[in-house]
Amino acid sequence: MNFHILTLFPEMVMQGLHTSILGKAAEKEYISIEAVNIRDYTTDKHGKVDDYTYGGGAGMLMQAQPVYDAYQAVVRAIREKSAGSATVANPPRVIYMTPQGRVFHQELAKELAKETDLIFLCGHYEGIDERVLEEIVTDYVSIGDYVLTGGELPAMVMIDAIARLVPGVLHNGDSALSESFHNDLLEYPQYSRPEIWRDKRVPAILLSGNHAKVDEWRLEQSIERTKKWRPDLYEKWKARQK
Ligand code: ADE
After folding, report:
1. What does the pLDDT read at residue 182?
2. Beta strand pairing status for 200-201 and 2-7?
3. For the chain, N or C: smaller number of CB within 10 Å?
4. CB within 8 Å of 180: residues ≥ 6 apart
5. What is the pLDDT of residues 195-223, one digit of tens each?
6. d(CA 164, CA 139)
7. 147 CA → ligand 1 middle, Å
8. What are the tens digits of pLDDT across the range 133-185?
9. pLDDT by residue (tens digit) across 6-54?
10. Distance from the CA of 120 to the center of ligand 1, in angstroms?
11. Ligand 1 site-directed mutation target among 62, 97, 126, most atoms within 8 Å of CB
12. C-alpha 8 – ligand 1 centre gap (Å)
């Protein structure tokens, strides 16, 4: 799975995404992460990529030309790479990170994890000229109802959530089945050594060796936790049980 990030701050996303699990996954080539500096594509001789907004208003807007040219360069590179393969690749989905988009969730992560290439477009300042968005964006996505200074952190959040679903990235293939949001339930509490810490004991059932009982206990805990912390999810889960 190949992630392409169009950004004015490539070092920010490259550093963040080449650490820990994703860094190892990239080394082993389960995923690739490439940041493309939009500024490299401006035709402005001073390297400018933004300008004032028509109609007035505070702040600067990223201009259409450098964004479009950076996008085209990425698409060209993807096409060239797949030129030898038998199947003609569809144009890749282009995800624009914006607080105006639909809110990201685990189901969308699963859907996007099936793609071969994904392009993330990160805006900065007051955003990006609408005309280039209309031209290239397929998905408008927000990571929550708050406003950040740019799309880089949201893109990193999405890439992390998607990449960990790509086969091979996580060592334990099972963990995606038990984790939070699977089945609309939050994950159960977990414990490691020692058996007693500050007078707190690990629940006895987990030491019993009875896997059926352990599974039952974990499901109960998941349900309890979801009811208490995420009543909205709990209602969804309950409705699905009927
Ligand atoms: N850009 C600024 N805020 C954002 C958010 N909440 N989600 C996605 N992109 C953003």
Report:
1. 79
2. unpaired
3. C
4. 186, 187
5. 999 999 999 999 999 999 999 999 999 99
6. 21
7. 5
8. 999 999 999 999 999 999 999 999 999 999 999 999 998 765 666 678 878 99
9. 999 999 999 999 999 999 999 999 999 999 999 999 999 999 999 999 9
10. 12
11. 97
12. 15
Rounded distance from Cα 221 to ligand 1 centre (Å):
33
Tokens standing for residue 225: 């936790």
**Mean pLDDT, rounded, of the chain:** 95
**Straight-line distance from the first to the last Cα atom of the chain, in angstroms, rounded to the nearest whole number:** 37
* Any atom of ligand 1 within 6 Å of the Cβ of 67: no
pLDDT greater than 80 at residue 86: no
Contact, 98 vs 140, CB < 8 A? yes
Q: For residue 88, name the pLDDT band (cuts at 50, 70, 90).
A: low
